[in-house]
Structures are given as structure tokens and as C-alpha cells.
Specification:
Structural class of chain A: alpha/beta
Order of helices and strands of chain B: HHHHHHHHH
Mean pLDDT of chain A: 88
CATH class of chain B: Mainly Alpha
Shape of chain A: elongated
Structural class of chain B: mainly alpha
Oligomer: heterodimer
Number of domains of chain B: 1
Number of helices of chain A: 10
Number of helices of chain B: 9
CATH architecture of the largest domain in chain A: 3-Layer(aba) Sandwich
Strand content of chain B: under 5%
Number of domains of chain A: 2
Distance between the termini of chain A: 68 Å
Number of strands of chain B: 0
Distance between the termini of chain B: 61 Å
CATH class of the largest domain in chain A: Alpha Beta
Largest sheet of chain B: none
CATH superfamily of the largest domain in chain A: Periplasmic binding protein-like II
Strand order of the largest sheet of chain A: 5-1-6-13-7
Radius of gyration of chain A: 23 Å
Largest interface: A-B, 15 and 18 residues
CATH architecture of chain B: Orthogonal Bundle
Low-confidence stretches of chain B: none
Mean pLDDT of chain B: 93
CATH superfamily of chain B: MetI-like
Low-confidence stretches of chain A: 19-30
Helix content of chain A: 40-55%
CATH topology of chain B: MetI-like fold
Number of strands of chain A: 13
Chain lengths: 267, 224
């Protein structure tokens, strides 16, 4: 009796497992994600909730941000309802490869390792390091920095990249953390600041007397939407929507809202 | 041991460390000379006949001795520009150290002055010495001799405290160490070297100050 129960349970579990596996394999092998989205009218998107202004939890405990607005824009164009799945930067790619979401819109950068496992859309958001400063300071290229003081956070990507570019005539002041760099800029101890566009946007948010407007790019690594491999029709659809959103100004509106800066023309 | 030391990567950055040590020494010398100067003036003021002056110096001493050095430094570097007072980071660092040491040394030197027997001052007055002469020749010399070890310790503390100035990007020894470890990713080796350098600087500072104390005050005592 007992033995039979165990045998039955094992058999049931095996059936479940193989069934599940089969279903899973079939889903990745020849599922058309776009077909499913159109049929169910649900677009499942992996979004960040710990990375403002791209994605954070709002006062009503719902995710808000650049990525969430982009997800809503895509869902609207596809005639589907958006289903937001909060992810971390570590688990966002596994969420896509295991079929838990249709898209990753999570300030995802493109690199060779990721391209082996997932596909990327065209860029949808600017993400870059640059030199920022008030309009009164003229600096269009690295050469214009000669004789000027530039604040930067020590050991950051922008510190390493800027240090490679500048001459000895540039007075680079390196601060311990972002707060030190921001304080030095706001108090006028440095004329310009090298930082990420996200940090500059955070400063803009506070509407200080010295506004960090973009002078020039130091390192560009825009964000892309991640899709499953071999999802040709979905990729085409997403790219078409993004291209349209770039020309009709709807993406520019999102950029203005969350980054307080116009969308770069070359995005 | 699992960790493998690699000091060779540090060698490329030797000029950065040398520059850092030089800056730390420069900050300390400037801060000490001016700070002890303020201390002497402050101690004299605390013993002066003018009550407002005594109160003002007392307020300065209490304010500085009861607030953190880092906050004083940020106040000068990040706060004062709002009032239009802007200075480079080395000047802000020196100013903060001078203000800080000035307050502590005021108290230390005052203790030495208080330890001078009243009879000696009266003896000076009866010889026809003026107030400043009495202060210079009778009070200050022996007072400094008495408190020299305590003052030396305070100067070493200020020298070590200058590491905080890395926070406003003053490129002293701690800044150099932080900078190097952000480039070669060998924090253990870098801070090992920085620790050794600070220790050497502290020992050297004590030795120099002890020599200086012997010359300045033992000779004076022998002559007197």
C-alpha cells in the first residue's frame, strides 16, 4: 500500500517534470512570442525597480521610470496589456532565457557575452558618461578642457576614460564618491563635472543654480531592449515601434520627463 | 595564506605616493606653524584683561573642539563658496588644519601658562618689564617647555588627521593611496604601503619635534 503510494507519487512527479520540460523546450524551440502576445493581449516585460530614473518604486508602490514608460508605449502599440515583472540586474537575462518574460526593458547594455544568449533591439535610451557644466563654461571637445577644473568620482568609469583623454593642462579633481563630486560642482569648486547622464539628470531634478548641461560625450553605451533568440517577428515589430517613437517624439517626451535632457540625435 | 601579495604593481605608482607624502608634509608644516601661532595668540587672549576677547576665544575653542574635523573641512570647502569665498582644496585643507590645531593648542598652551607661578610675573614687573616682555620672556618660554610633549602629540594627530583632506580631493598621502587602489585594484598592498609611510612620518615628526624642543627650551632653561 505504502509502496504503491510512493511509486504513484514518483510516477506523477516524473510525468510532471517531463511534461514541464517538454513544454519548456517547445516554447523556446519554435514558439513565436509575437503570436502569443497578440493572442493573449499581454506583454510581459522585465523592468528594474532599484535604478532611478529608469525604474524605481513610486509613492503608490508601483514601478515608475523611463523603462516602465517605454514598456507601456510598446504594449500600447501592440494592442496588449503590459505586465511588469520586477527584476534585478543579475537575474534579468535568465528571466528572458527561461521564457518568464517577452522583453527585457531594464537599462540593458549590449555586449558580446549577452549577444550569445539573447538578441537586441535598436537603442531606446541614452546611457553615457560625459562632461557636463553650466552654459557659461565653453567646452565642446576634450581639447577645450585645458586650463579648466573638472570634478570626477575617483575610480569610476568616467575617471578612467577621461584620464586617458585629457592633457596635463587639465586640472582633474578626484572626489571620493558621487556626493563629493556633485557638491564640488554645485558649490563651484570645479567648473565642469564628468559623470553619467543619469547622475546629471538627478542633479537637474533638484533645479540648482548651476545646471549640468551636456558638453560632450566621454563614453557611450546606450540601452537596448533584450529579446529571446530567433524571435524575428517580435524583433521587427519592436524595432518598428521604436523607430516610429523616435520620429514622432513620443520617446523624446519620455527622455525629457525622466532624464531632463533631449534625446541624442544619433540614438 | 590564500592572499598573494604583489607589490610590483605598486612600483609604477611610486611618483604618486611620493607626491602624496610631499603634500602631507607640506600641509602639516603649514598647518603646524600657523596653528601653533594661533594657539599662542589664543592662549594670550584667554589670559587677557579684556572680557569680550576672552569670551570670543573661548567660544572659538569650544566650537572647534566639539565638532568633527571632517565637518569643519566640508564647511570651509563646500559651504563657504555659497558666501562667495572660494579657495583651492589645498588652501581649504591648510585653513581647516590651522583652525583645528589653533583651538587645541590654545588650550594646551593656556595650561602651560597657568602653571607659571604668579610670583615670577610679579618679579618681572618689579624689574620694570612691560606686559609683552613679561609674556615673551617669563611666561611663554617656560610654558612652552612644559607643554611641548603634549603639543607634539597634537601635531602628530593633526598630521595623521590630514588624511581626511583626501575627501575634498587634496592630493595628500591618503588620496594617493585611494587613487592607486582605484587603478591597480590592489588595496591591501597600497594601504600596507600607506600605513608604513604614515608610521614613518609620525616617528620622524616626533623625533624632529623632540630635537626642536631640546634646542628651544632646554637651552633657554640652562641659560636662565
Amino acid at each position: 500500500m505504502r509502496f504503491a503510494t510512493i511509486l504513484g507519487a514518483v510516477g506523477f512527479a516524473t510525468a510532471l517534470l517531463t511534461g514541464g520540460l517538454n513544454g519548456g523546450l517547445m516554447a523556446t524551440a519554435h514558439a513565436d512570442a509575437l503570436e502569443r502576445i497578440t493572442k493573449d493581449k499581454v506583454l510581459r516585460v522585465a523592468v528594474p525597480q532599484d535604478f532611478p530614473p529608469f525604474g524605481s518604486v513610486g509613492t503608490d508602490m508601483k514601478p515608475v521610470g523611463y523603462d516602465i514608460d517605454t514598456a507601456a508605449l510598446l504594449a500600447k502599440e501592440m494592442g496588449a496589456k503590459v505586465e511588469l515583472v520586477p527584476v534585478t540586474s543579475a537575474n534579468r537575462v535568465p528571466y528572458l532565457t527561461t521564457g518568464k518574460v517577452d522583453l527585457i526593458i531594464s537599462s540593458l547594455g549590449k555586449n558580446a557575452e549577452r549577444e550569445k544568449v539573447i538578441d537586441f533591439s535598436v537603442a531606446y535610451a541614452p546611457f553615457f558618461n560625459g562632461v557636463f557644466g553650466p552654459d557659461s563654461v565653453k567646452a565642446e571637445t576634450v581639447a577645450d578642457l585645458d586650463g579648466k577644473t573638472v570634478g570626477v568620482t575617483r575610480g569610476s568609469v568616467e575617471d578612467i576614460e577621461l584620464s586617458k583623454l585629457v592633457s596635463d593642462k587639465v586640472n582633474v579633481r578626484r572626489y571620493e564618491d558621487n556626493n563629493g563630486t556633485i557638491s564640488a560642482f554645485l558649490s563651484g569648486q570645479v567648473e565642469l563635472v564628468a559623470t553619467g547622464n543619469v547622475v546629471a539628470a538627478a542633479i537637474m531634478e533638484r533645479k540648482p543654480p548651476r545646471l549640468p548641461n551636456l558638453k560632450f560625450l566621454v563614453k557611450n553605451s546606450p540601452c537596448f531592449i533584450g529579446l529571446g533568440k530567433d524571435e524575428g517577428p517580435l524583433l521587427e515589430k519592436v524595432n518598428a515601434i521604436l523607430t516610429k517613437a523616435k520620429t514622432d517624439g513620443s520617446l523624446a517626451a519620455i527622455a525629457e520627463k525622466w532624464l531632463h535632457a533631449p534625446l541624442p540625435k544619433d540614438l | 595564506m590564500a592572499y598573494r601579495f604583489d607589490f610590483t604593481s605598486l612600483w609604477d605608482y611610486a611618483p604618486v605616493l611620493v607626491h602624496g607624502v610631499a603634500t602631507t608634509v607640506g600641509l602639516t608644516v603649514a598647518g603646524t606653524v600657523l596653528g601653533v601661532g594661533i594657539g599662542i595668540a589664543g592662549a594670550a587672549a584667554r589670559n587677557s584683561a579684556s572680557r569680550p576677547l576672552r569670551l570670543a576665544v573661548g567660544a572659538y575653542v569650544e566650537l572647534i573642539r566639539n565638532t568633527p574635523f571632517l565637518v569643519q573641512l566640508f564647511f570651509i570647502f563646500f559651504g563657504l563658496p555659497s558666501l562667495g569665498i572660494r579657495m583651492p582644496e589645498w588652501a581649504a585643507a591648510v585653513l581647516a588644519m590651522v583652525v583645528n590645531l589653533g583651538a587645541y593648542s590654545t588650550e594646551i598652551i593656556r595650561a602651560g601658562i597657568d602653571a607659571t607661578p604668579k610670583g615670577q610675573v610679579e618679579a618681572g614687573a618689579s624689574l620694570g618689564m612691560t606686559g609683552p616682555q613679561i609674556f615673551r620672556y617669563i611666561i611663554l618660554g617656560p610654558a612652552m617647555g612644559k607643554i611641548w610633549p603634549a603639543l607634539s602629540s597634537q601635531i602628530v594627530i593633526v598630521m595623521l588627521g590630514s588624511s581626511v583632506c583626501s575627501q575634498i580631493a587634496a592630493e595628500e598621502l591618503s588620496f594617493a593611496a585611494n587613487f592607486i587602489q582605484s587603478r591597480n585594484f590592489r588595496p591591501f598592498e597600497v594601504y600596507f604601503a600607506a600605513t608604513a609611510l604614515y608610521l614613518a612620518l609620525a616617528v620622524l615628526t616626533r623625533w624632529i619635534l623632540a630635537r626642536l624642543g631640546d634646542r628651544l627650551f632646554l637651552k633657554g632653561a640652562a641659560r636662565a
